[in-house]
Each structure stands twice: as structure tokens, then as C-alpha cells.
């Protein structure tokens, strides 16, 4: 149960939820905390003014994050304020849980009403502290959000299970431990108080006294609260709208709010969603069981590595001690190699244990929370959170996917010492990689007719010599850094062809390959020299060759598409991977297939579809950027989430790695000054969007004329 505690705490105050409400994004907040983080928006952005102007938007319309000035450059990458003239300028504070808390624009008037009934400032806005989505409140204020009674019930049970022994409720000073509970009086008694206040005679003789633990359970099993409609507070929920995914009352149906929607019985949908969550939990439970067994395996591996290391060192010392004094210096070198291998194996296994333990703790906490939610008897309350929980369970199960529960290191030390050579060969003494000796593979041959470069990618192909009789288990491809530096491994595997992406434009690389098997590795092949493109693709350009040469003198251009291999699984590709959208309501990241490390590069993206929930983000990112959050939420991406864009808008991205700057354009107009400076390293074009957005990528474009002129002057 302890792992579940984080699921029960408010992200603002860090304490257990008190009167939790459910935001439209499925996250929860304490009612008091929700009131504390309200901010006031301009009159022009209120739902009332939008309805008056005729724009058909929802009362809970998500706002652009940058409009609200909610994030700095360190948070989202591009935090310039470009929206409201009357936006709040009061610096934000931080709650005990590390979440920004914005004070209201005006002090609330004194009131004697409860937090739920007290009026909120006109045109108030609230931002979810977990997913950072913003929405404007309607006239109902916080009363428009449903209460999460299921979460309240889970918290009550959790706190009761953690509480100390039940105390007598009638002791005047130091309460003693209760010994019984009267079911009719609903009071816990110690023995003295029971004899004094509840004698077993008269009408009290018919009361039923039970042990305190049993009395606690009977309190939990009290009839569930009846759920009422947020729009019609006197009506109970009786049906469930499948399209809106929310319980409704009969009056909502009579008013025609869901006339064209599919509506089903509340009890049937309650049972259906409980069954779906239970089925999802079965799969996650199997993963958790496998993870526990895997952790046991990893801990056993630590012991095996320790034992094998001790055994191997003892054998090595015995062999070296049998040799003459000339071997002593070599013996120390060999021991050092064994110790290094020992530490490497331990480090890999311990790191995997630590990583797997954290993931298992998170998985167990989610499972326990879901099991407690399933115990709830409130259909509407359950249905309000079941979809989000089912998605979280499936996502967590996917994180235990292929390769997660496979050891990254073996326990064996595949080394043996050959002490048979003569004394004059002692200086050649070294480890062999396996205990059984067999021939190494022959040197691979690079197939020059199949090796080529395209843009900043290189494709290499090789094969074994025709008369080779020793099979190869795999191959190791190495490239230098493009500047004549040291070689580094770029591919290890069984394939005989490999494409390397993300190289520097207009650079010369040296490539070589070698084969390996259990015995050892072959000599290197002959070195192949590769020249990457200067940037222009003359075969696909429609302009005359002379014009291409002029552009090339200024800047190099690259042709590329989106990369399905590195994108989030929810991204949907079309138009030869130039157009993307998403199957999820959450933000998902997709990268371009070409990376840039030097030069000046410009590309554009057009908005094919945009439903204002929420704004997409455009920019650049490193290859290991997080793919399941909005672009710019980690330190691996630099992006703009510009408000005011509409369907048909064009966003331009200018990456100048010569000057180490990043600039953005909307409809050919530069957005403010340079967005980011000191941009260094390898960057990929990047976009984050959800199912409400579709964009198309345009590449091979020249840099805007005014920027080219400014760059040449500089």
C-alpha cells in the first residue's frame, strides 16, 4: 500500500487530497488548492465575450500556455509573452510540492461561504499543474468540476489502514484503547467507559457490541453517496454519454445536450469499464510478477559474479605464481584487466537493478491504486476516472516491453590463461577471449558498388570472402569523426549493410569493418573514404542549375522527411512521411530524419488541421528527447508554442549553427528577436502535436532573403 501513497497526494500542496475535484484533463486537485492557483484573464478572452462575438468555443477552452506567461525559457523553450495586455505580472510562488502557484490578480472579497460556494473572480483561469493545460472557468466556477468521490473513498481507507489502534471516544483525558464498538450507537468504548456509559441492561441490552476492527469495517460499508449532476444539482446521474465520456441525468437528455450522442445505462457502463480496468490490470500484474522474478535473478547474478571473480582471480594468481620472476609484471597487468571486467559487470547489473526497482515501485503503486478504485461502489465516480486509469495501465505495461526484463550482462568471465608458451614468449602473454580455441573469421570485403552517400547519410555494404570457411557471428562497422580523428563503433550486428544517419554535411569520413566470432575478431577491411553532400539535391530541384549554384554559395539546403523509426508510436504518417498527425489527445513528439551539426538550415511546416486544443510546438531537439510530452518540457529540445496560429498558417524554423542561433517565423514574419542562442551539437527538426493537429513538412528551402543579407554583412 505504501507505493500507492503518491497517487493520493495533491500535486500542489503535497498532502492527501481534500475534497478533490476532477479537471477535464482527468487530473485531480484539492478544491482549496484549485482556488489558490486561479488567475484572472482579460475580458476579451472570457467565454461570455466569445459567445457574444459568435465564436463557437467550449466554456472550458484550453488556452495557449505562452499567453498566460506560465513558463520561462528554461521550462518550455520559448516563453515570450505575446497575448494579453492585462496578464498578471506578479511573480509566481512555489507550493511545498514544487508546483508554481499563481496568486489571484485581485484579492478575493471576504466571504463566509465554503471554498466550493465562494464566488471566484470574473474570467478566472486555472492551469493543471501536471499536464499544464489551461482553461477558463464559466459562471459556475469550481462548482462546474465534478467531485472525485472514488478518490476520497480510497484515501479514507488508506488513512484508516495506516492509523494507530482505535481509541475510546468517551475518555475525558488520555483516551484508552477501545475494546468494543456499539453498532447502534456508533461509538467506540474502553472497558471502564462501557460499564459506566453503556451498561448491559434496559434498552441498551439489545445493542450489538463488536470488536473495534469489525466496527471500522462496518463503517466503511455504509451506503454509498448518490451522485448528482453538476448542471442540475437536484438530479441524480442515471445514464452515461459515450461521446462525452461522462455521466448525465435525465434532465440533460431532455434539454437536448446529448441528442445526437450514444447514451447507455449507467450500471452497464460501470460494469463494462470495471471489466476493462480489471483486464488491463491482469496484464500489468503479469509484468510486475515477471519484474519481481527478474530482480531476484539480477541479485543472484551479483553473487555469481562475485564468486566467479574470486575463483578466476585465484586461478590467475596460482598460474602466475608458478612462472618465473619475469612474469610478475605481466601478472599485475592481467589482474588489472580482470578487476576492470569485474567492476564493469557489477556496475551494469547494479544499474539495471536500480532502474528496474524504480519502475517496479511505480508499477506496484499504480496497481494498488487501481485495485482500490475497483472496490468503489460509485458508478459515476468510477467512470469519471476509469478511462484515464486504463490508459495509464496500458502505458505502464508497454514500458515493461521487449528487452526490459533481459539481463544486460552475463555472469561468466569468458577468459582463460594460456601458460604453455616458452619462456622467451612471456612478453606476448595475454588473455584469450574464450576458453575453447578456434579460427577467427576472414577479413570482410567492402562492396564498393553498393556503398554511397545521400545528404548527411552514408550506406555501406560488405561481405565475407568467397572462399572463407570460418563463419562470422557478426560484424563491427567503424567510422571516424569526419575530421581525421579516432574511429568509433557505429554498428554491431549480423547484417552486411548499414546506413549511418546524422553525419556532418560536406565532410570526409573514413570507414572500415571487421568480423567476429566466439574466438576473436578478424583484421580490419581496407579503409573506404566517403564524402557527404554539400547540402543541395540537384536531382530534385526544379530551378535552373545556375540558380542552385547561387543559393549554394550562400547556404546549403537539405531534403528530408519525418522519421517513423524514432517517433512516438501514436504518430500517424502520410504523404511519404511529410505529413503527420496523432491518434492520442496527449502531446507526442516526432523528429526529422536528418540531423544538423553545422551550417544554416531552414524549413517550414504548414498547419493542415488545428482545433485549438492545445497549440502544437515546433523547433529542434536531440535524438534522445522525451517523445510523450510537449516539445520543450525537457532539456533536450528548443521550441516555440506560439498562440494565434490558425489552419493554413506557415511556421518557419531557421537553425543557424554557424552563429549558434534559432529563429522562428509565422507566415514569413519573424517572431520577435532570436529565440535561442548558444545552440551547439547535433539537432533534429522536431514537432509535438495531438490528434487535433495535422502538419506538413516542407524542406529544401532557401533561407529568407533578409536573413541571408544580414548573415553576409555579419
TrEMBL record:
<keyword id="KW-0862">Zinc</keyword>
<dbReference type="InterPro" id="IPR003961">
    <property type="entry name" value="FN3_dom"/>
</dbReference>
<dbReference type="InterPro" id="IPR013083">
    <property type="entry name" value="Znf_RING/FYVE/PHD"/>
</dbReference>
<feature type="domain" description="B box-type">
    <location>
        <begin position="224"/>
        <end position="266"/>
    </location>
</feature>
<dbReference type="InterPro" id="IPR027370">
    <property type="entry name" value="Znf-RING_euk"/>
</dbReference>
<feature type="domain" description="B box-type">
    <location>
        <begin position="163"/>
        <end position="212"/>
    </location>
</feature>
<dbReference type="Pfam" id="PF00622">
    <property type="entry name" value="SPRY"/>
</dbReference>
<dbReference type="GO" id="GO:0008270">
    <property type="term" value="F:zinc ion binding"/>
</dbReference>
<dbReference type="GO" id="GO:0005737">
    <property type="term" value="C:cytoplasm"/>
</dbReference>
<feature type="domain" description="COS">
    <location>
        <begin position="374"/>
        <end position="432"/>
    </location>
</feature>
<keyword id="KW-0863">Zinc-finger</keyword>
<dbReference type="Pfam" id="PF00643">
    <property type="entry name" value="zf-B_box"/>
</dbReference>
<dbReference type="InterPro" id="IPR001841">
    <property type="entry name" value="Znf_RING"/>
</dbReference>
<dbReference type="InterPro" id="IPR001870">
    <property type="entry name" value="B30.2/SPRY"/>
</dbReference>
<dbReference type="InterPro" id="IPR017903">
    <property type="entry name" value="COS_domain"/>
</dbReference>
<keyword id="KW-0206">Cytoskeleton</keyword>
<feature type="domain" description="RING-type">
    <location>
        <begin position="10"/>
        <end position="50"/>
    </location>
</feature>
<protein>
    <submittedName>
        <fullName>E3 ubiquitin-protein ligase TRIM9 isoform X1</fullName>
    </submittedName>
</protein>
<keyword id="KW-0677">Repeat</keyword>
<dbReference type="InterPro" id="IPR050617">
    <property type="entry name" value="E3_ligase_FN3/SPRY"/>
</dbReference>
<keyword id="KW-0479">Metal-binding</keyword>
<comment type="function">
    <text>E3 ubiquitin-protein ligase which ubiquitinates itself in cooperation with an E2 enzyme UBE2D2/UBC4 and serves as a targeting signal for proteasomal degradation. May play a role in regulation of neuronal functions. May act as a regulator of synaptic vesicle exocytosis by controlling the availability of SNAP25 for the SNARE complex formation.</text>
</comment>
<dbReference type="InterPro" id="IPR003649">
    <property type="entry name" value="Bbox_C"/>
</dbReference>
<dbReference type="Pfam" id="PF22586">
    <property type="entry name" value="ANCHR-like_BBOX"/>
</dbReference>
<dbReference type="InterPro" id="IPR043136">
    <property type="entry name" value="B30.2/SPRY_sf"/>
</dbReference>
<feature type="domain" description="B30.2/SPRY">
    <location>
        <begin position="539"/>
        <end position="714"/>
    </location>
</feature>
<dbReference type="Pfam" id="PF13445">
    <property type="entry name" value="zf-RING_UBOX"/>
</dbReference>
<dbReference type="InterPro" id="IPR049582">
    <property type="entry name" value="TRIM9_Bbox1"/>
</dbReference>
<keyword id="KW-0833">Ubl conjugation pathway</keyword>
<keyword id="KW-0175">Coiled coil</keyword>
<keyword id="KW-0963">Cytoplasm</keyword>
<feature type="domain" description="Fibronectin type-III">
    <location>
        <begin position="440"/>
        <end position="535"/>
    </location>
</feature>
<dbReference type="InterPro" id="IPR017907">
    <property type="entry name" value="Znf_RING_CS"/>
</dbReference>
<dbReference type="InterPro" id="IPR013320">
    <property type="entry name" value="ConA-like_dom_sf"/>
</dbReference>
<dbReference type="InterPro" id="IPR000315">
    <property type="entry name" value="Znf_B-box"/>
</dbReference>
<dbReference type="InterPro" id="IPR003877">
    <property type="entry name" value="SPRY_dom"/>
</dbReference>
<dbReference type="InterPro" id="IPR036116">
    <property type="entry name" value="FN3_sf"/>
</dbReference>
<dbReference type="GO" id="GO:0005856">
    <property type="term" value="C:cytoskeleton"/>
</dbReference>
<feature type="coiled-coil region">
    <location>
        <begin position="288"/>
        <end position="344"/>
    </location>
</feature>
<dbReference type="InterPro" id="IPR013783">
    <property type="entry name" value="Ig-like_fold"/>
</dbReference>
<dbReference type="Pfam" id="PF00041">
    <property type="entry name" value="fn3"/>
</dbReference>
